[in-house]
Specification:
The protein has 174 residues and is mainly α. Helices cover 78% and strands 0% of the residues. The chain is flat.
């Protein structure tokens, strides 16, 4: 078994310090670039009235959905990776709904984004997150998960049937 370990280390260059340093530098540069881009975008969008919040939410949505796709593709169908991908997708939908709802010009457009994206994503976040954490810490909470998912599905049914996001336009907003 020692020979297999030595073979794997030499074949995949696991002990080559140049490979380790090169990968460290590449990933550090990538992380710093993303952080700088994030800071620039936040600074740029915070100079207007409510649009910074909407733009920031849409940007957060793009990052979350991109992360969900990346994890789904690279996760090799592992249960934990798929749950985190679903979590990122739910956060992305919620954030997109919030950003677009804030940017809406009409009442109908606002209700559309609220109903189909904001509440659609928000309903699933607690259940998926509890499921993810329970697997991560290896805790058996099946009954609680069933209750959480049942509540989330009921919330979605109430939302999509039109009973959750109901509102009227009141004065002076006619």
């Amino acid at each position: 078994s020692l020979s297999i370990l030595v073979y794997a280390m030499s074949k995949h260059q696991l002990m080559d310090i140049h490979v380790v340093i090169r990968k460290t530098l590449v990933y550090s540069a990538l992380a710093i670039s993303v952080l700088v881009l994030y800071t620039i975008l936040v600074a740029h969008f915070t100079r207007r009235e409510i649009l910074p919040l909407a733009n920031f939410s849409i940007f957060t949505s793009a990052l979350s959905i991109t992360m969900a796709i990346f994890i789904f593709v690279k996760g090799q169908r592992q249960r934990l990776a798929m749950l985190w991908s679903a979590m990122c997708l739910a956060v992305g939908l919620w954030s997109l709904g919030f950003g677009m709802m804030t940017r809406s010009q009409t009442f109908e457009e606002c209700i559309f984004w609220q109903k189909w994206f904001l509440y659609g994503g928000a309903a699933m976040i607690p259940a998926i997150f509890l499921h993810f954490v329970s697997i991560l810490v290896r805790e058996d909470v099946r009954r609680t998960l069933q209750c959480f998912y049942l509540c989330a599905v009921l919330f979605e049914i109430i939302n999509f049937s039109g009973f959750l996001a109901t509102a009227e336009i009141n004065a002076p907003f006619h």
